[in-house]
Design a protein that fits this description.
Length: about 110
């Protein structure tokens, strides 16, 4: 994801964080997916293969859409944290707005598929 593309996404994620509508981090996102509590998952574009294995596979199985975001350091920095590989959105309207802006051509999932 280019910095130009990442800017609006990071802004929306920042709003979601301030509103308490984000789940941040691989373990927390996995737990939220298992509870069917997420409307969208944002994956860092430099995520590990283990994250793909654990999060992307579960999101697909639960029917939760995914998009590729910026790198983990950029994603974390804009959320006031260290590197973050996964962010889940619990707000369906915010998730819908993000998905409308970021087309399926950027859909997350295992690399190489």
């Amino acid at each position: 994801m280019t910095p130009r593309e990442a800017g609006p996404l990071l802004g929306l994620l920042g709003l979601g964080r301030r509103a308490g509508r984000l789940t941040i981090g691989t373990s927390a996102v996995r737990a939220a997916l298992q509870r069917d509590a997420l409307a969208l998952v944002v994956l860092a574009d430099d995520r590990s293969a283990r994250t793909d294995e654990k999060v992307a596979r579960l999101a697909r199985a639960r029917g939760v859409p995914m998009i590729d975001g910026p790198d983990a350091a950029t994603l974390g920095a804009h959320l006031g944290l260290d590197a973050v590989q996964t962010v889940g959105l619990t707000d369906p309207r915010l998730a819908e707005g993000i998905m409308m802006k970021y087309s399926s051509s950027r859909a997350g999932g295992q690399r190489g598929e």
